[in-house]
Design brief:
alpha/beta, single chain, five-stranded parallel beta sheet, 208 residues, elongated
C-alpha cells in the first residue's frame, strides 16, 4: 500500500521497544521514519541544520528521562516549527489530560498507549497532509519576500500606495514625481511581483 503522502516521521521515545514497533509499523505502510531515544538527541539533529524540505511529523513521548516531551514541544513551538512538523503525542493513560492540554496549545493530536495501528497511521497521514500545506505556504512566502527584496525603495513606495488604492495622480502628488514616472514604477512592480492588477498585488501581499 502506497502512502497518501511521501514524508518522514520522527519518533522520539526513550523506550527502544516502542521505537522499534513504530518503525516496523511505518515500514509496513511504506512510510519512512527516523527514531531517537531522547529529546536531547532530536534537538541535536535540529542543531545540525534545517530539516529536509518534505512533509514530516513528530511522534513524541510525553514522559522521558532528562528533557520531557512537553519541554521539547514548547521549544519547537517557540521556534515556529509546529506548522511544518505537526506533533502527535504518545501518552500513557495518566498523561491524557496533559496531552489534551498540549493539543489546545498547538499539538496535532495524541494517541494513548496501547494505540490502534490503523488509527495512528491515519492521524500520521493527516499530519503529513497538514505539513505539506504548511511547507507550501512557507515556499510562497519565501518567493514573495524574494520578489519584494528586488524592488527599489521608490518601487516599494509606489507599491504601498497602489495597494492602498490610490490612483496614479495622487501617488504622483504624494511622492512628488510625475504621473509618467508612477506608471513606469507601477509597471515594474507588477512585473517583479508577477501580478496583473492592484487587487492581485494586494492579495499576494496579504499572503505574505
Amino acid at each position: 500500500m502506497q502512502p497518501l503522502i511521501d514524508g518522514l516521521i520522527y519518533i522520539v521515545d526513550d523506550d527502544a521497544s516502542v521505537r522499534e514497533a513504530l518503525a516496523w509499523l511505518l515500514r509496513s505502510r511504506r512510510l519512512a521514519s527516523e527514531h531517537f531515544g531522547s529529546a536531547e538527541a532530536f534537538e541535536q539533529l535540529l542543531a545540525e541544520g534545517p530539516l529536509p524540505d518534505q512533509p514530516r511529523c513528530l511522534l513524541l513521548d510525553v514522559r522521558m528521562p532528562g528533557t520531557s516531551g512537553l519541554v521539547l514541544f514548547d521549544r519547537l513551538a517557540e521556534r515556529g516549527l509546529l506548522d511544518a512538523m505537526p506533533v502527535i503525542f504518545l501518552t500513557g493513560h495518566a498523561d491524557v489530560p496533559t496531552a489534551v492540554d498540549a493539543v489546545k496549545r498547538g499539538a496535532f493530536d495524541f494517541c494513548e498507549k496501547p494505540f490502534s495501528d490503523n488509527a495512528l497511521v491515519d492521524r500520521i497521514e493527516q499530519a503529513l497532509g497538514a505539513s505539506l500545506r504548511a511547507l507550501e505556504v512557507q515556499r510562497v512566502r519565501r518567493s514573495l519576500a524574494g520578489r519584494i527584496a528586488e524592488l527599489t525603495d521608490r518601487e516599494r513606495d509606489v507599491m504601498r500606495l497602489v495597494v492602498e488604492g490610490l490612483p496614479n495622480k495622487l501617488i504622483a502628488d504624494q511622492l512628488a514625481i510625475s504621473v509618467r514616472t508612477v506608471e513606469v514604477h507601477r509597471a515594474r512592480v507588477f512585473e517583479k511581483m508577477e501580478v496583473k492588477s492592484a487587487v492581485e498585488l494586494a492579495n499576494r501581499l496579504r499572503d505574505l
